[in-house]
Amino acid sequence: MYSEKVMDHFQNPRNVGEIENASGVGTVGNAKCGDIMRMFLDIDENGVIREAKFKTFGCGAAVATSSMATELVKGKTIQEALEVTNKAVMEALDGLPPVKVHCSLLAEEAIHAALWDYAEKNGIVIEGLKKPKADINEEEPKEVY
Ligand code: FES
Q1: 106 lines ligand 1 (CB under 6 A)
Q2: Is any ligand 1 atom within 6 A of the Cβ of residue 9?
Q3: Which of 24, 45, 60, 110 is most buried by its number of CB atoms within 10 A?
Q4: pTM of the model
Q5: Quick one: pLDDT at residue 145?
Q6: How many structural domains are present in the chain?
Q7: Which one of 56, 66, 99, 103 would you pick to mutate in the ligand 1 pocket, going by the greatest count of ligand atoms within 8 A of its CB?
C-alpha cells in the first residue's frame, strides 16, 4: 500500500523538532481526521531557507509528507519553496494512496502557513502566497446528501 520512501520517511523522519526563534512558524490541521502539523522555517537575509523542522501529531502519511516537505524546502528560496506543492511532495515519495492525499495537503499548507508568518513578521508580501487555512478540511468539497 505504501511506497518504500513513505515507509522510510515514516520510520526515520528527517528534521523532527523545533527551531528556536524561527523566522516563520505555521500550524495547520484537518478537523476531519484530527491531525495537526507544525512547520518551523529559518530564513536568511537573502530569503533562502536555511533550516526546516516539523512536529506532526498525525498519521504515518502526515509524518512522511512533513519529513519530505522539510527536506524539499531546505536550501530553497521562498519562491522556490512555493513550488513545493502537495503534488511535488507526493511525487518525491513515489505516491500516496488516494485516501492519504489530504495528508500531503497538510504539508503544503504548513509550508505556506510558516511563510505567511514570516511575511507578517517582516511586513512583506510574498508574491503568489495566499493566506493559508488553519483547517485544510475547509478546502474539501462539501458532502452532498
Ligand atoms: Fe489526516 Fe493523514 S489521516 S493527515
Answers
A1: yes
A2: no
A3: 110
A4: 0.92
A5: 44
A6: 1
A7: 103
